[in-house]
Structures are given as structure tokens and as C-alpha cells.
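Pinned message: reference record for DUF1003 domain-containing protein
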Amino acid sequence: MRERKGQARRRHTEAQERRGSTGTKARGRDGVRPSRTRLDQPRAPRRRLLPEYDPESFGRVSERIARFLGTGRFIVWMTVIIVLWVVWNISAPAGLRFDNYPFIFLTLMLSLQASYAAPLILLAQNRQDDRDRVNLEQDRAQNERSIADTEYLSREVASLRMGLGEVATRDWIRSELQELVRELDERSLARDPGGEGRRDETT
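Predicted structure (C-alpha cells):
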């Protein structure tokens, strides 16, 4: 009995030591267990420092701007604004001028416009290229389907022609019937050679 009690105590102490070792392993350095990542739930989105935007809506706006930049209306309005700018800064009183003769501010505005217009036009072109690529892929798939359909129909027509070649036509049946009638007439004449004379007398 004493030996059994001693074995039970040893087992109990070993189990406690195992629990303690696993607890120390599972816990971190601070004594706090780290939170486990659950696989049955999606991860929380990471925080981003940059603001998020919808690329599709941004692309649509950029296409509209690029289309407006490529119209005659934009050129007319730009010419009118530049002419008014230059005339105002030349003929207006000195206190009301905001951009004197070298027109540095006007040059800065035009350079900013060009620097923004070029990427917008490139973005619109890239979107158009993507649409053209998708359309080409769809046209290619449609052409492949139409080619497969035509090949299938041509095989079916060829099989129908081969089947119709073995079918008895009306002319063939008529010729066979005529040959049978001739054979019957010849047999009847061979059996009854005077039958033809009797037919002539009756007629």
C-alpha cells in the first residue's frame, strides 16, 4: 500500500511539474499569455498611414478630365484666361496687379497644369488599353467558339452526305421497279409464248 501511495504521489508531482512547464512556455516573458490567432475568423485590416481611395472612381474622374483636356473648349478657355491674365497685369493699375511682367505666377500655373495633365492622360490611356485588351480577349474567345461551331457543323454536314449516299433515292427505286417489270414480262412471255398474239387479237 505504501508503495502504491508513493507512486501516486510521484505521478501527481510529475503532472504538476508538466503543467507548470507548459504554463511557463505558453506564457510570455511578462507572465501574460499571448492571444492566439483564430483561423476561423478573418484578420483585422491593418491600419494604413496613407488615405484610402477607390481606384475605379479616381480612374473615371481622370478619364473625364483627360477627355476635357483634349477638346477645343479647353483650348479656347485656356487662351481666354491667359489673354485676360496678361492684359490685366499689363494695363491695370500697379496696386491691382498680382503678376508683373515676367509673369512668373502664370508660368508656375501652366507648369503645374502640364505636370498634372500628363499623368492624367497616361492614366486614361492605360485604362483604355486595359479595356481594349479585355475586348480583344473576348473577341478572340468568340472567334474560337465560332470556329469550333463551324467545324462541328461541317463534320455534321459531311456525315449527313455520307448517310444520304447510302439512302435509296426516288430515281433509283423507279429504275429498280422498271427492271423488275421487265423481268416479269420476260418471264411471262417465256412461259406463255402465245399470250402476246392473244393479247393482240383481243385488242
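Pinned by admin. Summary line: The chain has six helices and no strands.
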